[in-house]
Write a structure and sequence with these properties.
Layout: H1 2-6, H2 25-42, E1 44-51, H3 59-62, E2 66-73, H4 76-86, E3 92-96, H5 102-105, E4 111-116, H6 127-137, E5 138-147, H7 152-162, E6 166-170, E7 175-178, E8 183-184, H8 189-198, E9 201-209, E10 213-220
Parallel strand pairs: 1-2, 1-4, 2-3, 4-5
Antiparallel strand pairs: 5-10, 6-7, 7-8, 9-10
Amino acid sequence: MVERFFEGKDFNGEFKALIPKHYPKKYKSYIKEETNLLKLKTRGNNRILEAGVGIGRLIPKLAPFVKEFVGVDSAKLMLKKSKKIAKKFKNVKIIKCDLEKLGKRFSKGYFDYSLCVWNTLGNVKNEIKVLKELSKITKKDILVTVYKKGTLKDRINWYKKVGIKIKKIDKHKEIFYSQSGLISKSYSLQNLENLGKEAGLKIVSFKDLNKVMLFVEFAQK
């Protein structure tokens, strides 16, 4: 069902949820901080994977500063939009792939860094499986950003602003369910430490991004 959301079923016209110009000020600040952090972490002679490339927002921000940028996604709409942006860069490839099958598509340790940002991890069925797949193909670190627990009001306001149609909210667990089938979770640092432990990873750095999202850097144990 989550695929229906990323095929644009909640939207008429622009996919506002993935276009920063439509975001409230607090979320725009988060995007800027995240982009600068990712650029700082990944720049150099590195191969980069973005798991859940979406509309390709990060391609022009990161591709000019790395050796190779590969974006993967499973939604046709996302692939179409990201491929359009990728055409402008010789070192960018966009590939259709399920995040739970990355180890079958890429060789062991092929990428220096993998990115799983803008709460992509909070939208998948099995976070541990995805982290395990990322660890197979990542030589250095896995960089993740997810919704931070305790930001329920901000998320409600943001979903309204960008036009996501919410069907149900589990206010205790802070999980949102959209009409199109998206399940969007949020996390505490302890939640992420536990997920990492189950996947054979450890957190080597973390940061609160504008009191909206949590950034964590996972490394192999």
